[in-house]
Design goal:
The protein is an alpha/beta fold and 368 residues long. Helices cover 49% and strands 15% of the residues. The chain has two domains: 10-197 and 239-261, 3-Layer(aba) Sandwich (Rossmann fold), CATH 3.40.50; 267-367, Helicase, Ruva Protein, domain 3, CATH 1.10.8.60. Bound molecules: adenosine-5'-diphosphate (ADP) and magnesium ion. The site of adenosine-5'-diphosphate (ADP) has 18 residues, from helix 3. Residues 57-58, 134 line the site of magnesium ion (MG).
Length: 368
């Protein structure tokens, strides 16, 4: 905590978020800066996070929620609500855009400040809150050339409540039920989505599409021979137009000050997530065996094998860890006692992992 302002610095916030989120330093930095500004009640621009499925977008949002829950000493602690973008379209359909966001924030303010707090005070809290909107790529205005009316409505609903000085808001029954006008310009929106297909679309644009030839091959020397290769990083080429093409309206995109990309996770990151994430399949399995008086141990090589297999699964990110580990651990969970050695220890080494995963690979290859 820096003394002068008594609010945490972005670095201090980032250090805490890093305990839950592996890698993703850009997204953590942007989020920490936004949160530090929010805690000082300074204006903050909205943030859009783009990253493949299973790279930590929702985990980062949860980490912020946990951070705020753990720091009730912060004087200007904002209320926070997390929701799926689809919900906003449904609300808008009932003619009440903004209702979902403000309603949830108001409920959170009541939880945080207590039910005795006057409504005006709760509203004041709610309109300085943080709204996490997850799966924002699901509200694209068109999918495969077909108009997506629900998506268009949801984007319009979000636009209504982003940086608006007079949003009509119907108070819930417990707050009187009347309709008031809310200045929502103090809200911080952090939206996230996987934007599947965006990577390929931008790659195509700069190689064979509109900007053909923009991405120049680089010459590399590999195993003694000279080769030409295209090195593509989405972050180097992504422009607002790509997001328009994807189906986010220009007005909607314009509401974001920062667009951050989450990186795909490499084997090292997957190893750390496997060992450290509180919801990791490894921890679940360990708790299960402990419950039966047994202890599960994996050698470092076994963990790496699992991470390697997971890294090869396309478009699943860290979610693949769970799927791969299920295949490995299933027979052990079915008959724990059968596999336990001296002192009730179940030890898995590389060989056990390979043996568990090899047949499945064979099946997949045979199916092709
Ligand atoms: N960067 C990360 N750091 C820690 N855990 C992660 C990370 N990325 C994914 N995970 C783990 O993978 C699972 C899915 O991650 P999630 O954050 O829900 O992905 P998404 O990016 O699709 O929202 C979670 O169980 C989480 O523990
Ligand atoms: Mg998610």
């Amino acid at each position: 905590m820096s003394k002068k302002t008594a609010t945490p610095t972005p670095k201090e916030i980032a250090a805490e978020l890093e305990r839950r989120v592996v890698g993703q330093s850009e997204a953590i930095a942007e989020t920490s800066i936004a949160l530090a500004k929010k805690l000082a009640r300074l204006p903050v621009g909205n943030v859009l996070m783009i990253g493949s499925s299973g790279t930590g977008k929702t985990t980062l949002m949860r980490a912020v929620e946990e951070y705020l829950a753990a720091h009730d000493e912060l004087a200007l602690r904002p209320v926070v609500a997390r929701m799926h973008a689809n919900v906003l379209g449904e609300e808008a359909e009932r003619g009440r855009p903004g209702q979902a966001v403000l309603g949830r924030l108001l409920a959170r303010a009541r939880e945080q400040l207590g039910p005795q707090t006057p409504i005006a005070e709760l509203l004041a809290e709610a309109r300085h809150g943080i709204a996490f909107v997850d799966e924002v790529d699901k509200i694209r205005s068109h999918v495969g050339g077909v108009v997506n009316t629900a998506g268009i409505r949801a984007q319009e609903a979000l636009l209504t409540v982003m940086e608006n000085e007079a949003v009509p808001f119907t108070l819930p029954a417990w707050a009187g039920g009347e309709t008031v006008s809310v200045d929502s310009s103090g809200l911080l929106f952090v939206c996230a989505g996987a934007f599947e297909g965006l990577y390929d679309a931008v790659f195509d644009r700069v190689t064979i599409g509109r900007d053909k030839g923009a991405l120049k091959p680089v010459t590399v020397v590999e195993e003694g021979s000279v080769q030409e290769r295209l090195e593509f990083r989405l972050g180097d080429w992504l422009r607002n137009e790509d997001l328009f093409d994807y189906g986010l309206s220009p007005q909607f995109i314009a509401r974001f000050d920062a667009v951050v990309l989450l990186q795909d996770l490499d084997v090292d990151a997957l190893v750390r997530i496997f060992l450290e994430a509180p919801d990791s399949g490894f921890h679940q399995a360990r708790a299960y065996f402990e419950n039966r008086g047994l202890s599960l141990r994996l050698s470092p090589a076994a963990v790496r094998r699992i991470a390697h297999h997971a890294a090869r699964a396309p478009r699943l990110g860290a979610r693949a860890l769970k799927e791969v580990f299920r295949r490995v651990i299933r027979p052990y969970e079915l008959e724990p006692e059968l596999h336990a050695g001296d002192g009730g220890v179940i030890l898995l080494d590389e060989a056990e992992v390979e043996a568990a995963l090899a047949p499945a690979q064979g099946r997949q290859q045979a199916a092709r």
